[in-house]
Amino acid sequence: MNIKKIAEICGYSVATVSRVINDDSRVAASTRKKVLSVIDKYNFVPNITGRSLRTQKSNRILVLLPTMANQFYTTIIQGIEDTADEHGYATLVAVSNLEESKELKYLHMLRMNHVDGCISFFNTLDADYITQLSKKYPFVQCCELTIGAEVSHVVIDNEKAIYDVTSEFIENNHKTIAFISGNYYKYSEISRESGFIKAHLDHNLKLDKSLIVKSFYRYTDGAEAVKKIFSRDKTPTAIVCASDSLALGAISELKRMEINVGEEVMVIGFDDTSITEFYKPSISSVSQPRYELGKEAFDLIFQKLNNIDATNKKVILPHRIIHRESTGY
After folding, report:
1. Is 87 helix (H, G, I), strand (E, B) or coil?
2. Is 295 contained in some domain?
3. Residue 237, exposed/middle/buried by CB under 10 A (0-12, 13-18, 19+)?
4. Is 123 helix (H, G, I), strand (E, B) or coil?
5. Range of the domain at 184
6. What distance in Å separates the CA atoms of residue 195 and residue 236, rounded to the nearest whole number?
């Protein structure tokens, strides 16, 4: 197999295939994806130097983030770095900004042996692509899964976390509860919404689906969601938020509306980021074991580094509900 044959199979010119191999930024994402899938299928290595690189290690792990704006990732990365260091590995953090072309660019480093493995926090790529990638290269997912992909991963039970929070509100006599969710990270969002609905069903409480509002994860989205929710005749006495940023925005808007948070309306966020303790009122939140998530993520990638054919593992870590002033504590 040579570059000319790869070009023929792809239906592109040799020059285009060469640009993909050399990580030329001018190549379209769809073209890059097609060429790399053919390269993977035929285990093509571009040159003699590349063949020798296959037997060498870089002792570096790529950590692929969707954004740097979310402080939630900081402690997880620390867990990865500390555990990697214990095993003689360094970490390289890259940010995709939720762009497929950037993901493909960084994953090209894995194929070219510039890194030995990849821990990904979110992918825009489809399940089949992720499955095939993980069969050939050490690749695991942390916190967010690609639904349908066969890949080792570590998460919390997102459905149970929101189920537990919602059940607590119901058991404390809250009859009308709103849920503010995001609309991008499909795995966690679907799981959390499922937990919210299931809690209502299990407690025989009628669910008003108009109180489920989907947005993004900015503070302003939480505020806008509250405006939408409180424009209705029936308003909630408790609000469950899928992130701390949404909770902060929701609380800010409630305060602007002169609604007493923690007394008239309870609000809880998700992730227990540092702002939850220092905002006024302090924000209740679902805590994820972030450092342990990082440690487990590296342990999973280390297993794949030692044996790419090792059975894929699903690790679920426990969550905690932390109550503060926003839920009346």
Report:
1. coil
2. no
3. middle
4. coil
5. 158-289+321-327
6. 18
Residue 73 included in any domain:
no
Maximum C-alpha span of the chain: 71
* Distance (Å) of CA 169 to CA 7, 203, 265, 300: 60, 11, 11, 36
SS (H, E, C) 225-237: HHHHHCCCCCCCC
Q: What is the pLDDT along the chain (329 residues), one digit of tens a residue?
A: 688 888 888 888 888 888 887 777 778 888 888 888 888 777 776 654 444 444 468 899 999 999 888 889 999 999 999 999 999 999 999 999 989 889 998 998 998 889 999 999 998 899 999 999 999 999 999 999 999 999 999 999 999 999 999 999 999 999 999 999 988 788 999 999 999 999 999 999 999 999 999 988 899 999 999 999 999 888 999 999 999 999 999 999 999 999 999 999 999 999 999 999 999 999 999 999 999 999 999 999 999 999 999 999 999 999 999 999 999 98
The CATH number of the domain where 276 resides is what?
3.40.50.2300
Q: What is the CATH number of the domain that holds 23?
A: 1.10.260.40
144: left (phi over 0), alpha (psi -120 to 50) or beta: beta
